[in-house]
Amino acid sequence: MSLHPLKRTDLNKSWNHGRAGTKIKMAPEYQLIITEGTATEPAYFAAVSDIVNRSFPDKIHVKVEGKGKNTLSLLNSALNSVRRNQNDIKHVWIVFDTDDFSVSDINRTADLCTKYSCEETTYHAIWSNQCIEFWYLLHFGYYQTDIHRTRYFDKLTYWLKTLGQGEYSKNRTDMFYILRPYLDIALENAERLEKVNKGRTPAESAPGTMVHHLIKHLRNYIIDK
Q1: How far apart are CA 177 and CA 181, in angstroms?
Q2: Would the CA dihedral through 74, 95, 107, 91 be positive or negative?
């Protein structure tokens, strides 16, 4: 018997029922988070996946891969991962910053995620303009002015010191846990900014981020009760 999650269209078919109409137990829903970075983003999302996988093993399984590749190469890597995986992956979250890549590659990656999405697998372009640290900042306030990414670090250090958490650095592995109490603030600020950026391409959305789509999707699994 396959352990692949069943499609919605198969849920009510006769072969999906045992004796007396008992439904076969479904496997967890598999999701993949694949990141451009190999340190900052994997550390943040590894904390997310650890909470999800440890607390809800029968419902959902999230895997994180830090690839160190650019936008289009990252998407190709994600497509290959889905093809090789023995489980059906329902959601693929492709996480990348816009700071070091061409406008055409940034926008094309987002367009291709929509193109390659199907009933079995949805591909999400989770970009941050300029970098994921902007998502971190939204936990503390609403920011709409486009400033250079290096200034994000000073602002994060200010907020972290206010919380008694020291200076910000890209290799910190505790950022998710520090920021989790302010998660709903970040979601609200990011959604507000997304409305401001409506109609703009990812490259034009400065500043902007789509990380809230991933976090909102998993919110009920990771919220600090």
Answers
A1: 8
A2: positive
